Structure formats: structure tokens, C-alpha cells
Amino acid sequence: MTRARQVHRRAVGSALALSVPAMILLLLIFAVPLLRLLALSIEGGSLAAYEKALGSELYVQVFLGTFKIATLVTLLTLAMGYPVAYLMATSGRAWQFLGIAFVLLPFWTSILVRTYAWMVLLGRNGVINRTLVSWGVIDTPLPLLNNEAAVLIGMVHVLLPYMILPIFSAVRKVDPTLVLAAEGLGASRLQAFLRVTLPLTMNGVVAGITLVFTLSLGFFITPALLGGGRVVMIANLIEEQVRELLNWAFAGALSTILLVLTLAAFWGISRLARTRPA
Amino acid sequence: MKGVDLRIDSVAKHYGPVVALGGVSLTVAAGEFLTILGPSGSGKTTLLKVIAGFEYPDAGHIVVGGADITDVSPAKRNVGMVFQNYALFPHMTVARNVGFPLQMRGVPKPELRDRVFRALALVELQGYEERLPAQLSGGQQQRVALARAVVFDPTLLLLDEPFGALDRKLRESMQLEVRRLQRRLGLTTVFITHDQEEALVLSDRIAVMDGGVVRQVGTPDEVYERPADDFVAAFIGESNLLAGQVAGPDRVLLDGGASVTVTDLDGGKGRVRLLVRPEKMVIGPATNSFSGTVVEAVYLGQAHKLRVRAAGGIELLVRGDRPMEAGEEVTVGFAPQDAHVLRGSA
Amino acid sequence: MRRLRVSRLLLAGFAAVVYAFLLLPLLIVFPISFSSAQYLQFPPPGWSLQWYERYVDSPNWLEPTWLSLKVAVATMVLSLLVGVPLAFGLTRARFWGRDAFEKLTAAPIIVPTIVTSIALYGLFAQLRLIGAWYGIALAHTVLALPFVIVLVVAGLRDFDLNQELAARGLGASRWQAVWHVTLPQIRPSLVSAAFLAFISSFDELVVAMFLGGANMTLPKKMFDNIRMEIDPTIAAISSLQIVLVCALLALATRFGRGAGMTDR
Fold first, then answer.
1. What total of structural domains would you count in chain A?
2. Binary contact (C172, B104; C-beta < 8 A)
3. Which of A130, B171, C146, C256 could crosslink B163 through cysteines, CB 3.0-4.6 Å?
4. CATH number of the domain that C174 lies in?
5. Nearest residue of A to residue B61 by CA position?
């Protein structure tokens, strides 16, 4: 064996050796338990849990509701996020730094803290109701909390940075001279944006949509606190089955379904994006 | 100190189906400055990496000062190298960069500081010890890289296209400085470049590489005046290559129909190509004359370059000392001893 | 700059509204945390430090805080110890299945946390690890690993490999080259990765809820408290957390900047 071969082998060997601890960790504390959970859901070869989950109107409503909320959150974050990301990426350095800080600060703040803040704002005796009453705009407090709108607001707040950041980096990569070139060739500002900037930033948009949608599907804290028990998403259903009813087989089936839906969404969005005509 | 000799013995290297080095053999004498000249993709960088130990050859040997180092790790080769982009460590000061090889060799602090100081003095960068590489100009960065490559008394100095990033003026002064430093330290040096002018100016000898093999090794004079083949002739300097058939002991019948006298035939027969450098061409009648029309005239500052179209489809590059206009009728020619004969297939 | 146009102004106005939406909820907790009222009231009738005192004086709050800190530090250390070598393994050699494995390391982000949590609950219950702080740290490490790997892999891909070759040629061993040349140059990535691992563990609720048993982490204690009553103690803790995040971000920016890589 030549020295060149030996050296190549050794490089591959040490790369594998460096990867081993992480591989073991991911295998033992991630892959194996997940597979066990999936196995639990078909305990004794019975698909009863799946029949229950997919056959009952009640649970199907939860699945559909989860999808609806995820879709709305994705659309809202996109509508709010793209203009902000675009403005940030095309601003001067100081403004850009400030913009990033404004996005990162909530991004790094605990979801619990942020959800609590919304409860303080939206509650019956919360900041908004108190203010409106004291200004005489309304007589009785509005029911702002414990409904789907509150959950949507909370989720958009949590997930907006996940939409802004990938689009921001995509817009920043667009060579500004391309836009100038398009304008120089007779395109209006809007046309230049639609024909040049938007197509070139689609990868950022797709990344943002993928992140926000898949993360939305698994949301637990926000609906639990801002929905007041009236908004139940799949994750809340699973938690209830395990903690209150100790129904592991059913929780396993629900988890499997949630996992499959999430992976399907993840795969489906990136696939749709790839087949999109240029 | 004195450098030692380097022997490269039938070194071969391939990446998958791509042959990077097809059995290269070269010797570099102690203290010699050898340039490996070739276009990109010629295998010259791979050869340098093999000498440095960053790549191991599939076959062949590297022998330095009589010791076979083919299998020695780069850290133990004691070879100083200046990278194309200098590869200065951006997070270390100049002093720490230059001191790095000494630190790795466990040189005690006071001695280390002393040797770093002397190396920086050698490249005239005293007082820059605490700067970071990003705070230096391109030329200064290069001096630091040079100091770092020689501070540990290496047996060999390898230079990988170190002047590519510098502007013309700076490049010329750095070339002279590198050459002076190399002579002073007596370092055996292998220098890689694709710039033929640089190779001609700097080298004791030049090895011209193409397609993973060495086409010719020789002094700058030899490779310029007597190139071994068409590739070398075309790669180094500008040239007129005239194809023809030997028609007598000192006569060649060119393909265009003209007949010329040359002195370099040595009794050979068959098809040949004649190489005449543009600066050997004369304007006016000569032993071998061609009359034609100027198709292009370019002013070069110290000379005028003409492209002349003569009868039989022959185009000649001529370096003249007076301005001419495109379209002018002219007679050009060359002396028999100024044509170099190339044999073998083109 | 070219003419400041109406569309740009409209865009800026829209962005201002979005920034307000993002930031106002964070700002609102500060005045409430200093309220002198006995329950949630806005605007506060007067100012006091009572809610901070209640937090600092109560073992019910401090013990979960220490537990969360311990878990977060362990997660940070462990995920770097495991993730940095993996990032080297993924970037330094091609081996069969490498790309697939690299994609797989991102899986803990995609799989919903609730699913991971109950899967681990099943395993840890059998191993009697429920309630053990290192059990939570192990699980948090798995969740933090994708972030660490993405950041460090990106750092290593940007790193000029010639730097390491140069160090080797100058006499450094493989490890010396990595230690003296590579790691200092990817320090920004390492600092961001450490910060992310720490904060993601410190804030994590769902895994801790399942694996913590009777042991309360700070997020779990906060969650239970928020569910029971809206108590301004939470506002005080939230304010402290926001300040902590700002401080950590400032530290990460300060120490994460690569030496010598001055931006121009």
C-alpha cells in the first residue's frame, strides 16, 4: 500500500473517530427512543390506536386545526417578515445592525417570557384592556385572551425571526448592481424587484417557510398558555394523553402521526420549491 | 549556513483518473534557485505540495541531502514555504507568526525572541513586531511570510507563486529582494510560477512543466534560445514558428514556398520548424528576406511590435525600433544563425 | 444615496410597526416587575422592588434557577465536546454516508420537541433517570447539537485549509496546528455555538417537564406558576432573563469577533 493511500485511509479513519461520540449520543438518546415510541404505538401488532386517532371526528379536527394554524402563522410571518428583511438587508450598516439586534433580542428571549408578556398585554385586566377602558374607548374588557387569535399572535411573535433571518441573508447576497442593471435596462423599481430580487431570494423564502411551518406543527407552550384550553394543537393532545391519561399507545400513535406530518411538510415544501419554474 | 541538494526521483501522483504528475525527475543543487514554470494545471503546484509533504506521491522518492523524506510528515521535513496568499495567521502578531516555527520546535523564549528579531531585520521589518497581518501592506505581508519561512534555518525554501498578488513595481523589487536573501542564506530554493519573465529574471535554472511532465530543464538562456519543443518555445517569450522541409545541408524550404538558409541543421533531414524570436528579426534586407505588408503595429514604449503578412500565408512578428503604419510595405528578415531548429512532431 | 422615495418610507413605517410588535411585549414586563401593587395592574400605582425580593428570597425560585444553570452549563460543555469533533469529522474527509449523516444531525430540530420528549421519557423511566439533572442535560445536548454542528461546520468551511498546512509545514503537529491556528480562527463560530447551546437549554421547557420528575427547572416552575396565577414575580424573573440575554449577546459579540479579522 502506498503512503498516499495510507494517509488517505488515516484521514478517513480519524474523521470517523471524531464523529463517533456524537453518533453514539444521537443514536442512544435520539434515534433509539424514537423508534421505541413508534413501536409502542403498534404494540401487539394492533393498529387500534391509529384507528382511534384517524377515525374520530374529534381528533381529526385537532389535526386540521393544527394545520390551519400553522398555515396562517406561516402566511402572517411571511407577509410581515419579507418587507422587514428586505429593508434590513438594503439599509446602511448602522440601521442593519440595529435591525438585527431588534430581531435577535426577542429571538433569544425565552418563549415562556414572551408568552407571559402577551398574557399580560391581552388579559382581561391586561395592559390593552385597562388602557382602552381608562381612555373610555370601551366599557367592558374585550375577550382578547384564550382564543385562536391570541395563539396566532403569540406564535407569530415567536416564529417571526425564523422567517426574517433566512430572507435577510438571501437579500443581502443579491448583488445590488443587478438591480441597477435591470433599472438601467428600462425596468421600473417594482419590475426590477419582481424580476430580479424576488426570484433570487426565493431560497431564503423557502427556508423561512419550511422552518416556520414545521416548527408551528409541533407548538405546545403558546397554545397551552394563550389558548386557555380552548385551542388544542396536536402537541397539547399528546401531552394530555401522556400526563393525564397515561395512554402511551395512543400518545405513540399521535406522535407518529405528528412526526410523519412534519417530515412530509418538510420534504414537501422543499420539493415544491425545487420544481418551481425559474 | 548552506542549503543541501534536492533530488526528485520519478514522482507520480494521480487524483482518480486525472494524472497530476506523470513521473517527474529533477535535481536541484545545494544553494541553487530552480524555477518550475508552467501554465495552471501543469502539475507544478502538486509537485511543490509533494516536496513540502502536504501530498504523498503514488510512486517515486524525494531525497533531501541524501536522506529519503518521501514518507516524512511535513512537520518533520524542515522545509520553509511561502504560500501563494502567504497563509499568515491572521490572529497572531507579526512576531508570533515569525516565532511560530521556533515555538513548535521548543526553542527557549530568549533565543526565540532573538531569532525572530534577526529574521525581521533580514527582511527590514524591525518595529512591526506587534502588528497584525491585516494591518500590513501586501509587500510587508510577503516579507513576514518570508521571514517565517527562513527563521528556523530550513534545508529547503519553497515559494508558491508568491508575487502574484503584488502590483508590477512592487513585484520587481520583491523579486530582487527574495533573490538577494536566497543568495545570502545559500538556501536551496524551488520557486513556482506561471510568469515566464519572472522565471527568466530570477532563476539559476528553469524546469518547464506541462501536463504533469517536465518538458525541459536548463538555464534561462538555454530554454529561451534553444527550447526543446514547440510548447516551451511558445510558452516562453514570443516566437515565430516556421514549418518546412530540409532541402540541403543548410537550406530549408518553407511551406509557403520561400527558401531560407540556416546554420543549425547538423545534417538532419525531414520536416522541421524554425524558431525565430521577434527581436532577432530585422527590418530591411537580410540573408533570409520576406517582403510583405504591416497588418498591425503596436507601440510598446521601448520598441514597436509589428505583425507582417508575407507571401505564402507566412505571418511574422517583428520587434523594430521605428514606428510604422498598418498597410505599409516592408521587407523583413533574419540571419541564418538566428533561427533555432525544432524537430519532432508539432 | 439616491432620492429617498415614498415607497421606501412606507417600508420603513411598516418595519417600525413590526419591530414594535417584536419588542413591546419584552418592554412591558419591566414596568410591571417594579410595580408596588399586590397583583397585576397597569399602569403600576407605584414602584417597588418587592417582586425581585420575593424571587431572591424564595428557595422555591432559587433552587430551580440553580438547577437550570447547572443543566445549561453541562449542556453547553457537552454539546461542544461532542459537536466540535463531529464538525471536524464532517468537513475534513469524505467518507461513505457523510452527507446523509450530516443531514441526519439536523433531525432533532425537525422532530417536534414534544415527540422527542415523550420518547425520552419512555427510555429514561426504564433507566431510572427521571429527575436526574444530567438526564435533562443529555437530552438538551441532543437538542443543541444541530445548532452547534451547523455553526462550527460553517466556520470550518470558511476556514482556509492552507492555514493548517502552513502550520504543519512550519513544524506543528496535527493537534498543535488545530489548537494554535484553526480553533482561534473559528472562535466566532465556537462562541456563538456555546451561547446557543447554553440559552437553548436554559429556556427549554417541554423536555424538562417530562424528564424533570419532581425536580423543577426554572422554565418548568415558571410554566406552572403562569398557569396557576399571573404573579408579577414572573415579570421580575422575565426582566432578569431579558437582561441576561442582552449581557450574553454583548459578551458573545465582544469575544466572538475574530482577532485580526477587522472588517473593512
1. 2
2. yes
3. B171
4. 1.10.3720.10
5. A3
- What ipTM goes with this model? 0.87
Give the pLDDT confidence of A5-50 residue by residue, as tens digits. Answer: 777 788 788 888 888 899 899 999 999 999 988 887 777 677 877 8
Please give the tally of structural domains in chain C: 1
Which residues, in sequence order, are CB contacts of B159 under 8 Å at separation 6+?
Answer: B81, B82, B178, B189, B190, B191, B192
Residue C87: inside a domain, yes or no? yes
Q: What sign does the dihedral C94-C97-C99-C102 (CA atoms) show?
A: negative
d(CA C248, CA A62): 39
DSSP A115: H
| pTM exceeds 0.95 for this model | no
Same-domain check for residues A13 and A118: no
Our measurement of the distance from residue C229's CA atom to the centroid of its chain's CA atoms, rounded to an integer in Å, reads 27
Which other chains touch chain A, taking contact as 3+ CB pairs less than 8 Å apart? B, C
Taking contacts as CB-CB distances below 8 angstroms, the residues of chain A near B55 are 4
Tell which residue, A37, A7, A73, has the closest CA to residue A250: A37
For residues C255, C261, C263, C264, the Cα torsion angle rounded to the nearest 10 degrees is 160
- Dump pLDDT digits (tens) for B123-163: 999 999 999 999 999 899 999 999 999 999 999 999 999 88
Residue A115 and residue A209 in one domain: yes
Hey, is the C-beta of B79 within 8 angstroms of any chain C C-beta? yes
Determine the residue among C115, C134, C156, C242 to mutate to test chain A binding: the one whose Cβ has the most chain A Cβ atoms within 10 Å: C115
B80: chain C residues, CB-CB within 8 Å: 169-170
In a domain, C7, yes or no: no
E strands, chain A, are none
Could you give the residue ranges of the DSSP H alpha helices within A135-247? Answer: 148-173, 176-184, 189-192, 198-200, 202-217, 221-226, 234-243
B202 vs chain C: nearest CA distance in angstroms? 24
CB C126 within 8 A of CB C135: no
| C171/B101 CB distance under 8 A | yes
C16 touches chain A (CB under 8 A): no
What is the domain extent for residue A28? 1-41
Give the confidence band of A160 by pLDDT, cuts at 50, 70, 90. Answer: very high
State which residue of chain B sits closest to C264, comparing Cα positions. B134
Q: Do B75 and C168 touch (CB under 8 A)?
A: yes
Find the residue in B nearest to C182 (Cα): B89
Window 151-170 of C, Cβ < 8 Å to A: none
Instruction: Collapse the DSSP code of A175 into the 3-class scheme (helix H, G, I; strand E, B; otherwise coil) and give the result.
Output: coil
Contact status, residue C61 vs residue A1, Cβ threshold 8 Å: no
Given a contact cutoff of 8 angstroms between Cβ atoms, the answer to whether C43 and A134 are in contact is no
CB contact under 8 A, A4 and B13: yes
Average pLDDT score over chain A: 87
How many Cβ atoms sit within 10 Å of the Cβ of residue B89? 22
Low-confidence ranges of chain C (pLDDT < 50): 1, 258-264
Give the span between the Cα atoms of C34 and C30, in whole angstroms.
Answer: 7
Q: Quick check: B275 and B239 in contact, CB under 8 A?
A: yes
Residue A15 and residue C90: Cβ atoms within 8 Å? yes
